[in-house]
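Quick start: read one record
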Amino acid sequence: MGESKFEVLQLVPDSVKPKTILISLPATLQDVLRSLNENNLALPLIFKPDLGERGWMVRKINSEQEIEQYLSEIKIDFIAQELVSLPLEFGVYYIRFPNEENGFVNSITMKEFLFIEGDGKSTVEELIFDKDRARLQWDMLEKVYENRLAEILPMGKRIELVSIGNHCLGTTFLNANHLITPKLSSAFDRISKQVKGFYFGRYDLRCATLQDLEDGNVMVVELNGCGAEPAHIYQPGASLWRGVSDLITHWKNLYRVSKENHQRGVPYLSFQEGKVIYKKFKSVKA
């Protein structure tokens, strides 16, 4: 919490990340368009705050009008990122203890984007209200799909309502730990060792196939540190006690990484420093 998402992403190898730039405020529409043009970025794009969490102000931007709207709301520097259209999205948690040569993946979350499916008789609006997760996003969906709300979807036809893989935006998190293999851990070990100072955190990524995931042929859209959770615990219907157990293991691993790093000369964050970071984070969302 408090780190620059842009600075962290710069540590990730170029071969496994989309083109991303930082837009510094204050900025006008023309400033943004100029920056996009200079970096060969074209709409649609993903905009997200350089400091944020849980999907706050993460949006797919399709037009100049949407850029202007974003600029009217955002209070801090933000990221403009190339849209990755690969079909599968995962959160992959990686750990390497500093005193050990190799690390491992211990959590994979598969993300099922918010969607509705036609039954041949219900309108888009009715289908949205029939689905709990979609109904909670009504204020946003009403605007996005205002021209399609009365449309009747044919039987079996799907509409992906939100293409951003965040729990707060209606995405379902599924436990995909069965995909963890020695080959997959090795692939993420190879990527992670190219990220200076990285031992513990979650890659949010997209890929084309499960085989590409295992091979490490992925596009990392964000890399989160110890503030990120092993999100497989949010599988619908999952055991509360298993989730608590997994979190306890998670915190123990975090403690061990922190302790070994400290023994290697990395200072602990003081309580006062943490308090300052937390206040800064809360202020930008106020």
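The two ends are 16 Å apart (CA to CA).
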